Amino acid sequence: MANVYDIALVFSPHEWVEALHRHCTNTGDLRIRALVYDSSVLETEIFDACIIADSHPALSSGFVLSLHEAGHAVLGICDKSAEAQSFLASTGIDAIFSSKISAEQLTGEIREFLNNTWNKPQDVIDIPHINATQEDVRKPNNIGHVVSVVGAGGTGTTEVALVLASRLIDSVAVDLDFEHPSFAPRAGLALEPHLLGAIESAHNHPETFPDFVQRMPSNGVISGTSHASFTRDIRSYELESLHHRLISTYAHTIYDLGRISEDSHFFSRTQTLLNVTDPVLIVIEPNPVGILRGLEIIALVSSLQHSETDEKRIGVIVNKCPKNKDMLKDVSRELEAIEQISMIALLPFASELLGRSWCNEVIQPRSWKAPINHILDFICTDRMPSDSTSKKRDRVDLTLEPVGAST
């Protein structure tokens, strides 16, 4: 007798969801035990496999890991684009199927996959539906990387944070610029759900946390509030709860802290976040005032370390760089002399980014590709040696490529 598998089908507004549900209801090829509208109920449902769309906001490596620990298979459905398959593979999902085939064919492929793999240990599964073997992107203790992006206001921290998040697998960008939150208008996202709901959920109702994460094509996003006044009552312990929820759910978290200043009403909260992140990326502009402001921020960040062994890695991103090679060399030379800086990247001025930054469109200018790759290498590299000689040598090597890439 053929095996009949119990399925939890996570609802999303796609035609294949309705078609698959109708086909299985009529034929019984798969037994749909639950059409899931709230992903938190999966913790109490009894089923063999969960079927979920790549665009669902709850989908992350933490979500997949929790279902694996409960003994469930997790199957992803997407349009088979390279971007969608890459994201699904990054979550550690068991298999990927196409949304473009018929419900009958999809059901057959899912049944074949479960028949061939259901009783096998997860580490020996070898099925052609699986996009790729995904290396473990987390740290040894399964805690995700957290990066803070800060600036002096108007330097481009939002664009940098969103572009970095879009390039990192299993990532979420969080708008923690309390004074000037701008993720929603920049990325064309809804004003709700936003940061306050995510904080409340993380602190009191963690099972509903995925509901407060909006999805962009390659990453999750938690938008800021519509006005700074709404965030004045946020407490440090609430931010810590949010932080712990994020690092246990995502492999990479990008905090956009916006402008950092000791005179800000929100400085103590910014300190709380900087204390738990490494590395810190400081976005400045290529002029004397920009470099001076960057030095002030470096001093603030350095003052937060508790000991020499706790030294934070600091990267400086010089944004809106002109094509003047001599000027860029002068800027690089000034920054290379600063001992605390571990990485320097130069982002060329991009008129197309400036023109679209408030048009509900997030893009990565072609001229940013090389320096962004350089920044990603820095983010994903383990802490550099504390020996000052090797640190200085690494810093000089790192700055050579961005200078050439930005010309």
Structure description:
With 407 residues, the protein is of the alpha/beta class. Helix content is 38%, strand content 18%. The chain is built from 14 helices and 13 strands. The protein has helices spanning 15-27, 61-69, 82-90, 103-117, 157-167, 183-187, 195-204, 236-247, 267-275, 288-302, 325-336, 351-356, 369-380, 388-405, and strands spanning 6-10, 31-36, 49-53, 73-78, 95-98, 145-151, 171-175, 214-215, 220-222, 252-259, 280-284, 314-321, 341-348. The chain has an eight-stranded mixed β-sheet with strand order 8-9-7-10-6-11-12-13, sandwiched between helices. Strands 2-1-3-4-5 form a five-stranded parallel β-sheet, sandwiched between helices. A hairpin with a 4-residue loop joins strand 8 and strand 9 (220-222). The longest helix has 18 residues, at 388-405. The radius of gyration is 23 Å and the shape is elongated. The N and C termini lie far apart (67 Å).
